[in-house]
């Protein structure tokens, strides 16, 4: 698949890639940029932290890339060898390939990534689409996942579509409409999130996200998840049914820790230490008030 098919234009692709390169320069800890060959094409990985530390895989959401972890990495890379992976078919440094979600090709892609990185077992932190990818992999390869931390994961609660008509209407109003749509989709409406919102607006002005619905995992599939799990969802998520996500995880994965964050939408920020506590088995993770 050519880049032209995941971006609206070559100019738009260039603009996003230039912005991505600028943001990578602001990565707050020393990092290696790795390019791993896979059956779906090259995968770009940003590795940080001590090489002898336990491995931690980071999987971003739709329309994002590794730079979404900039606010978390200084903490996590203290304790782990972190591998922030650009998911294929998204606006990062990996191949534009988009395997069907109702196949095992994404799991095979991750097999290749882990082999290329020399990893056998891993902990994973993932959000949104990345959460779906992580769940799909954990269900298919449970022996490879030691701990699983998910933020607003797809594939458990149904996707909501009620925001779409309003988004289509707002799109008629140019840049202001796109920005308002981004606020609705993410729930980011605080002054401190303006920079993040700017990045999202730039991306979705030029990028074509996946349009298929995320497949929903069955109860039986979820019951097979026996590794320690942390699931954080936002009560105001307009994109994924967070109440159903919490209910199904509590019912099907009784060993999981689930927190529904009040006044939080689809974009869950500021949970660095709660996730670190879970990964390090310190105390019961306490989400940061938003």
From TrEMBL:
Query: Which GO molecular function entries does the Swiss-Prot or TrEMBL record give?
Result: catalytic activity
Q: Which residues cross the membrane?
A: none
Q: Where is the AB hydrolase-1 domain?
A: 56-277
Q: Which GO terms describe its cellular component?
A: membrane
Entry-linked InterPro entries: AB_hydrolase_1, AB_hydrolase_fold, AB_hydrolase_sf
Protein name, per record: Ndr family protein
This chain's source organism reads Nocardia ninae NBRC 108245
